Amino acid sequence: MTPAFWALAAGRFISALGDGFFFPFIAVFLQRVHGLPPEQVGLIMSTAGLFSLVARMPAGWLADRLGFKPVVVAGLAGAGVAVTLAGWAPGPWTFAFCYALMSAMVWGSFPALLHGAGLMVPPRRREEAYSIMNLLSNAGIAIGPVLGTYVVQRDIRLIFLLDGLSFLAFSAIVARWVPALREAAAGTGTRPVPATEPPGTNAAPAEPAPAPARPDRLGEAEPAPARGDPRGAVGAASERAVATRTQMGLTGPGRPEAVEPPSASRSSGRTDGGTGLSRRVLRGFLAFFPPLSHTAFWQLAAGALVMNLIYSQMGSNLPLDLNQRFGEVSWYGWLWTLNGAMIALLQYPATRWLQRYSPRPRRVLAALLYAVAALLILVAEPVALFLVAFAVLTVGEIMFTPLLQAGVAAMAPPGQGGRYQAAASLLFGMGWTLGPAIGGALLGKGGPELLWSAMAALGVLAAAVFGLGALGAGGGARRPRITCGPAPAGRAAGGAGAPAAR
Q1: pLDDT tens-digit readout, 173-215
Q2: At how many degrees (to 10) do helices 359-379 and 384-411 cross?
Q3: Which CATH superfamily is 295-471 part of?
Q4: Is the pLDDT of residue 115 over 90?
Q5: In sequence order, what are the beta bridge partners of 38?
Q6: Could you tell me which CATH number the domain at 3-182 has?
Q7: 465 preceded by cis ω (within 30°)?
Q8: CA pair distance 186, 184, nearest whole angstrom
């Protein structure tokens, strides 16, 4: 690992420590300082969650256009200022605005952070790098609440100041010690290179890379196309024409190209004008995302969303279920202590050992472990079997988290790593956002039997998604096929309307 990566990892630990100070006490602050009822506290939290989702895709697009470093530096600095102002906001709605702004800037910078971490290490060590980031993040969040309790007893507003300082410190670390690496454009045959750093930085020099015309799989080379494969040299020219439309989701499997008659744009009235505007807006929105035709990516992201629907129950509906079944419990916190301790001790060595195996069975096994954990929770009695269930769940988390992030990095075409990480982060975050509501409805309608049976079924569904289709062929998830040479001016490899990587 490079010194720049360790600087990034150290900054991530500092900001996670600040998060641990801050997040467990937000609801207490709103009730104690602003006197808000639980309903308004929930509304403020939900609004911030919505802002965090909306910000990810534009920030990923900016990371591809400007490089990951300015997005991370600006996002963290803005978050530090916003969260500090939130602590001294004069009213609850001013607080809500500052808190939502902080959430948008933090989570907007997160995909760029993941993209940058992937650029700082060789592809074969990405899983290790992401496992280190996950380990340090969990360690900081686990330590923070213990220290935050003492801070709250003195002055609860200080948690906002400490969290803000942690973001500003992380921003300063990235600005000073992390080089502004950019991924080489398709067809150049080089590894990530410095964008604007002067000589003397710790950026790795450009080195020859394997043949750029053969897109990487996760840990294995792609087989040569069969004779008569239309993707060969004969079909390259037509493929470039189709790729532009496919990247925007306008064509693809099962989507014949429709030729719009010349008179369509001149048709009468306001309706057609509105339709044209809506179409342009839709195209602009889709330009932020990976192409809909990249089946392997969307399959991986969909499976991750399903897994996070399961995981989100552990912090939302599991405590409600425990209270219904066993009354007030004092040992619920032990489950998360076990989770954090296992990640701190096992994440890095487990990732190093597991890399010898193909990605497909690891994804499938992680999803099945989530399903087993849900079934154990359904039949468990306090306390031992609940600890076993959480241990099983944590093993699945240790297996899957770095594998997801490294897989997305490997799939992304050159110059589009920010967009791909942002899209995966968006879908993963949607699991956190939707999970509590879905689980709450299931728990209210059918009790724990319906809730945990449904979660187990979702785990099996995620395993099937990971094991079949585009992700199932040999265990490798491929990048979309690209042609040699630079993309046309004004178009990155990601499709029409997206800015070219510089």
Answers
A1: 999 999 998 776 544 444 555 554 433 333 343 444 444 433 4
A2: 150
A3: MFS general substrate transporter like domains (1.20.1250.20)
A4: yes
A5: none
A6: 1.20.1250.20
A7: no
A8: 7
Residue type, 175: A
Asked whether this chain's domains 3-182 and 295-471 adopt the same fold, the reply is yes
Sequence-separated (6 or more) residues with CB below 8 Å from residue 435: 308, 309, 310, 311, 312, 313, 316
* Structural domain spans, the chain: 3-182, 295-471
Compute CA distances 392 → 60, 130, 200, 209, 312, whole Å. Answer: 33, 21, 47, 39, 15
Residue labelled with tokens 């996070």? 308
DSSP helix, strand, coil percent of the chain (3-state; round to 5) = 70, 0, 30
Q: How many CA atoms lie within 13 A of 133 on its CB side?
A: 27
Q: Taking Cα atoms as reference points, which of 489, 480, 462, 477 lies closest to residue 242?
A: 480
Neighbours of 364 (CB within 10 A): 21
Quote the pTM value: 0.72
Determine the Cα–Cα distance for residues 223 and 184; give it in Å rounded to an integer.
24
Burial of 453 (0-12, 13-18, 19+ CB in 10 A): middle
For the stretch 39-51, pLDDT in tens is 788 788 888 989 9
Count of helix runs (H) and strand runs (E) in the chain: 16, 2
